């Protein structure tokens, strides 16, 4: 088994300077390991810091202490200490992220939003668009929407574009933050399929799943967090 | 000849002439480089050749023979009065014959008769700075000259071609002197540009209002700027001079009546006259 | 591989007043760095010092020249510095009128840099100018028009074409979308994003607009009172700001 993510003694406290320097501790001494081919679910009540931990793994949130080692190019990179350039490389080739909401870019059509992670690692335009088209049809986004910018899409459509984008480049590590929150049953089933497929391809996944059905269908293991 | 009383030889005082000669020496040493000099008030307005007159006054000696032309003609007001000015203040001989003159002061032309070694041609210059049209700052144009940073000069030629299909600049056409300094040849027609290249005569340029002197020493390379696919070309006329029949000289259009009548004649009056004299003699 | 730009201890004082103080960072090929902060925070002073237009009071700016590797740009001679500025670098001014020649045609504006580095074939210069106009989405039928007849967004795109024609490796941009309508801004941002990615350009973008920074920059430098108070990955700085000033800046943005 290959450890794809190793987290040691991670702690995070938000300090709100604009509100008199109030300190909000989120979690402390979090440790976990994720192996290739498994899907670890972060579990716990709301406010337990699941999303924050996920964001720390992606380098979007800076922890106060501890280490986050991510498997990249055959070595472990400590995301908590890596410089921006390194984090960008890790994100390009080793670690994907599906956020709760799509951050739409003006004027860029849905097809290219999904193809972008592939373009970033040098996949030719045609091939990248072809893969993007497969994912979009799998997630049941009507073809007439592909050439439009997702800013005007419904919440559910935006989220499916977001999921397609996250799965496009087949990163060895994928982080999922409530990917199915605004989806109906059929689309949820498609996402479950995608996750199961990723596991079978020996990719490592970490997720926060609000939905019991999804969690039970995809989780290899639970990592329980207390508020 | 009668000289005016109370003036120094050639009007300017000796210190001023020394200052001008020092500027000329520097200009000759750095072909095409504009040397600042302390331009004096002259007894004629700016734009009438104050720069050229000061250069001529700086170099003229009692044995010199002076020719002055304006647009190629020896008999226009400006040419006549400058000739008379030196005749009266220096007592020197004047002439209208190109090959006879030792100094030729000119506005807007180079004579058709080829110049020879030992002669000096003095150009009257209104605006000496070739880069001025696109760069108004003197500090910047000086820096551009220092660094031979002349690429943008082609922007002007580019604009010509884009707008008219060819380089439409016809006079004061920019040249590169000795493959180093960009220079304005003064408003001579570009027809005359090739005559500047490796000319055996010394070519001096004086700008009175702008207080600059520059020079092209004998036998110096003078190249007109152009593009590979739009090479430099001079004007051509479909007809010959109506008076002397020359097909090789620069022609002026002269309107002869108010019914549209016109003729083309040599702008160089001396050249035209010599040819007519020779034809007459042959007949 | 070495950084494209290596900056250390960069300080610029205006008498007693601090323009920028003790700034240091490395910029790598293909990296886009945003400098954010409010007006008067020293962003533009810093940009001018970095782009060889304002000599710093102390500190060094070294650029990875093609011939000799990292070289202090203020120690090299003026001819080399000028050559650098018109070949390897691009400078996009906030007001396109500062970066364009308003009296000559769009084609000549784009072709100027080519002529400045020795191009002497009219046909080829014109063809390249047309190609770049197309790249920045300006109708090539307007190649002979004066910029005076262009809209604000077109002028900014023309300025970008003029800078990119020599394939620079590093572009400095000062509020590239400032003064444009939002819809025009979106188009320009999209264009800049595409060009930066396709050409592998490194860029330093000064902006007070955090949305612009998020869209264009890989990493951010937050300035306050001439000093850098926070740096990091763009989304990390904006989503999890640590310094009190950055928190204030992020929380002050109106979310439409």
TrEMBL record, chain A:
GO terms for cellular component: plasma membrane. This is Phosphonate C-P lyase system protein PhnL. It comes from Telmatospirillum siberiense. Residues 5-226 form the ABC transporter domain. InterPro entries: AAA+_ATPase, ABC_transporter-like_ATP-bd, ABC_transporter-like_CS, ABC_transpr_LolD-like, CP_lyase_PhnL, P-loop_NTPase. Pfam families: ABC_tran. One of its GO terms (molecular function) is ATP binding. Keywords: ATP-binding, Lyase, Nucleotide-binding.
UniProtKB/TrEMBL annotation, chain B:
It is an enzyme of class 4 (lyase). Coiled coil: none annotated. One of its GO terms (biological process) is organic phosphonate catabolic process. Pfam families: PhnJ. Its EC number is 4.7.1.1. The keyword S-adenosyl-L-methionine applies. Belongs to the PhnJ family. This is Alpha-D-ribose 1-methylphosphonate 5-phosphate C-P lyase. It comes from Telmatospirillum siberiense. The lineage of its organism: Bacteria, Pseudomonadati, Pseudomonadota, Alphaproteobacteria, Rhodospirillales.
TrEMBL record, chain C:
It holds the Pfam family oligo_HPY. Coiled coil: none annotated. The keyword Nucleotide-binding applies. GO terms for molecular function: ATP binding; ATP hydrolysis activity; lyase activity. It is a peripheral membrane protein. Keywords: ATP-binding, Lyase, Nucleotide-binding, Transport. NCBIfam families: CP_lyasePhnK. PANTHER family: PHOSPHONATES UTILIZATION ATP-BINDING PROTEIN PHNK-RELATED. This is Phosphonate C-P lyase system protein PhnK. It comes from Telmatospirillum siberiense. The gene is phnK.
